[in-house]
């Protein structure tokens, strides 16, 4: 049987008149679907998008990471913009489930305004706890953590790269 999202109790009773006994539809929905925090970040994502890397103002200030998990198909592109050692802005694009999108959104909120060293202290458990992720969705918070760390690493590598000789 395919999962059905039920939003109307009369629809619920017409589809499942006796099969679920005394379970109320609202309780079933709460157990089956995303937490209110995931719902909020999914429908109102913060910092979605990407920086224009062709803009000279972003050339050496933006670090980019792309991470994914083949088993579930989630892919996160996360970018950090760093000025004077602080993350002044962050952006993400995520192809994946609601938990992956919410994890990316929340991670960008957590790191904005922090130094790169402070942002490197981000742990997936911080993300998972805030979003109330079930065990089966913990990998989404791990992807977000990895994306943050790799984006900062990319930024730092750009800083250590020798500048091109200009005529």
What does this structure look like?
- The chain is an alpha+beta fold and 167 residues long.
- It has 2 domains: 33 residues, no CATH class; 105 residues, Alpha-Beta Complex (Sufe protein. Chain: A), CATH 3.90.1010.
- It is built from 7 helices and 3 strands.
- A 3-stranded antiparallel β-sheet has the order 1-2-3.
- The termini are far apart.
The total of beta strands comes to 3
CATH class of the largest domain: Alpha Beta
User: What is the SS-derived class?
Assistant: alpha+beta
Q: What percent strand?
A: 15-25%
What is the average per-residue confidence, as pLDDT, rounded to a whole number?
Answer: 85
List the domain count as a whole number: 2
CATH fold field value of the largest domain: Sufe protein. Chain: A
User: Cα distance, first to last residue?
Assistant: 68 Å
CATH architecture of the largest domain: Alpha-Beta Complex
By DSSP (H or I, 4+ residues per run), the number of helices equals 7
* Strand numbers in spatial order across the main sheet: 1-2-3
Radius of gyration: 20 Å
Helix content bin: 40-55%
Low-confidence stretches at least 5 residues in length (pLDDT < 50)? Answer: 1-31
Order of helices and strands: HHHEEEHHHH
Report the principal-axis shape: elongated
Largest sheet: 3 strands, antiparallel
InterPro entries: ISCU, NIF_FeS_clus_asmbl_NifU_N
Protein name: Iron-sulfur cluster assembly protein
Domain NIF system FeS cluster assembly NifU N-terminal: 34-160
Pfam families: NifU_N
